[in-house]
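Entry
Fold in token form

___
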Amino acid sequence: MFPKNNSCDYRTYCMPRESNSYCSCDYLPSTKGIAACAIIASVFLGLTIIILFIHSINTSETHSLGMFLSLLPLILLLLAFIFILIALILVGSYLSRDMMHIV
């Protein structure tokens, strides 16, 4: 966590176990991006599992609905893997910077 105010020291005022009203702290944009990508990927994977389950139990479907239920999980899986890849790239690219702030 890093302070929003430049006069605050992140090593003393932004500790997770302390609450300070003088210095409001926030997460880095890269950390927010990693969390957002992980959440979006998990939602897409969950929707894929639900749609595949509905597709497997629904045998009396029309042709257009069957095509939709067979293509949508593939699209959602592709999007989930893209967001997982983005999250991994963000983790790898900002890892050294985060370690430098810890030391």
